[in-house]
Each structure stands twice: as structure tokens, then as C-alpha cells.
Specification:
single chain; 117 residues; alpha/beta; Udp-n-acetylmuramoylalanyl-d-glutamate--2,6- Diaminopimelate Ligase, Chain: A, domain 1; six-stranded mixed sheet
């Protein structure tokens, strides 16, 4: 799914990376635990989270994520935006909760990261 479609479905505000909205992601992962992101996620995934701190950006950088959606109307600070910009990321914010955001994307065909056996 292209990031532009994600923004449309979530009625999200693009905070950073409007020039990258045509990038494609193959899956989504919802978590506020960055240790889970490190354990399960690889590039080509959009991260959905309610955590708004620099640790989120650093974690996303380590697993090559290009897009982060902050839920519940959370807005990243200038420091977070600057750090994400250095890493070429797309940042968005949506008023939806994490659960609803996940459901919207899943019901529109964006798969989640599967469980590990």
C-alpha cells in the first residue's frame, strides 16, 4: 500500500515527508514497545504507535522504517521531526486510537507482521 493511501484512510496529517508519499509499504506493525519493534519489524513496514519520543525514531532507523504514524492525535516535537528528517522518514498523525488505526489499515488490505513460530 502506498503511504499516500494510508494517510487518506486514516485522515492523517502528514507532518514530514510529503515528497515520499508514493513509497510502498507491505505491512503495518502496532506497538508502543520499541523492543517489540526491534524483535519483529523489518523495512517496508509502517509503524503505528502512541509513543512520541526520540527513541521511536532511533528504533525505526535501526530497522529501516520509512513511515511512522502517531495515533490519538499525538504530535511529534521539533526535535523528533528533525531527527526523522535526518533519516528520510515520513511522519503522520491521526486522531484514531491505535486499535482503530490498525483495523482501518487491515480492513483495507494492509497486512500485519505475522507472529513468530
Amino acid at each position: 500500500m502506498v503511504i499516500r493511501r494510508i494517510a487518506e484512510l486514516l485522515d492523517a496529517q502528514v507532518v514530514l515527508g510529503a515528497d515520499k508519499l508514493d513509497l510502498d509499504v507491505g505491512a503495518a506493525f502496532s506497538s508502543d514497545m520499541m523492543s517489540d519493534v526491534l524483535a519483529y519489524v523489518t523495512g517496508g513496514t509502517v509503524l503505528l504507535t502512541g509513543m512520541v519520543n526520540e527513541h521511536v525514531i532511533r528504533t525505526a532507523e535501526m530497522v529501516d522504517l520509512e513511515c511512522i504514524v502517531f495515533v490519538r492525535g499525538k504530535v511529534p516535537t521539533k526535535e523528533i521531526i528533525d531527527l526523522a528528517e535526518e533519516n528520510g522518514m515520513v511522519l503522520m498523525t491521526t486522531a484514531h486510537t491505535l486499535y482503530v488505526t490498525s483495523g482501518i489499515l487491515y480492513s483495507n488490505g494492509l497486512e500485519g507482521i505475522g507472529r513468530r513460530e
